[in-house]
Amino acid sequence: MSALAPSRLSPADVVRTGSLGLRVRRARAALSALGIAIGVASMVAVLGISDSSKADLLAQLDRLGTNLLRVAPGQSFLGEDAVLPESAGPMLRRASGVEQVAATETISGKTVRRSPFVDEAETGGISVAAADPSLLATVGATLAHGRFLDAATARYPAVVLGADAAATLGLDDAGSRVWIGDRWFSVIGILDPVTLAEGLDSAALIGFDAAASLFGADRNASTVYVRTDPDRVAQARDLLGGTANPEHPEEVNVSRPSDALEAKAAAKTAFTSLFLGLGAVALLVGGVGIANVMVISVLERRSEIGLRRALGATRRHVGVQFLAESLLLAACGGLAGTLLGAAVTLGYARSEGWTASLPAVALVGGVGVAAAVGALAGLYPALRAARLSPTEALRTS
Question: Which of 134, 136, 272, 332 lies in disulfide reach of 148, CB 3.0 to 4.6 Å?
Answer without folding.
Answer: 136
